[in-house]
Amino acid sequence: RNFALTLAGAPKNSAAQLLVGVSNTKYLGLKLPFALSALGGGKCFLLVSPDILLATGTDAKGMARFSIPLPHPAPIGVTAYAQWATVSSANRLGVELSDGVRFTIQR
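Given the sequence above, the corresponding structure tokens read:
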């Protein structure tokens, strides 16, 4: 079985990364959400601990999808958090971040 996360409305034909983490409250001593405005990130916030980075890209419509195979047996009850990051000229940092999502693996 696979689990998929999809991004829509992102910059077209752009590099993208799916950030997956185990926390939405802290990362390496930083409190989350972490405002990227001081780094030139405009109104973007880091919402998840980027413990796993999965690189991909957006298509000509600004969409991306990442399919993650679940091990067997699946780790039922595990909760994780995810957020997309895309290369963009929308701010000085050159990165836009999506809303975050929380998911729990269930049967």
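The beta strands are 2-7, 15-21, 26-27, 30-31, 34-35, 45-46, 52-57, 64-69, 79-87, 95-104. Try to locate this feature in the token string yourself.
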